[in-house]
Amino acid sequence: MKTIKTKVIPLAIVVFILLVVFYNNKSVKLSKEIENSYTYDGQVIELEGKFKAPFLTRTGNTISMEFEVFNDFYIIQTKNKVITGIRMNYGEGKNTVLINAGSDNKFEQSDVVIFDKDGNKLKTSDKVKITGRIVYPHKGVKKESLVKDYKTGKETMRDEGQDYSYEITDITVQKD
Q: Which domain holds residue 116?
């Protein structure tokens, strides 16, 4: 009995803590990688998580959505990652999004309806699996920003590295 209290329980606690600290699921790892490399350019990727629609940024027949991927440990959600640039068709139909906004164009998450690959209605609170093609429209372009030295008044361009901004298109939504 002493062995269990002195060795097994502390070992189990250490293993659990290490798993929580160092483990990320596939979607979290992929979300970090697409923001820091061109590895998946032009490829179809798969992510699991939930949709978010914080702002109505609609252009024509498409809308830009956000997608939150989660760490597998449901109790500790510290390593969640939000992916932007999910470009979806707007309206009713398969793999589309519809926002039931009032006359003032204000809406909440509950007003957002997502249609899956079979045309079934889903909520942003539903866990889903999406697949889509990732494209880096500014691949190879360096990001620069204008920096002003307030002491001298001189403005210079600062190199900020590669532009890893991306869009994910051709989205297929499947309820998880």
A: 2-175
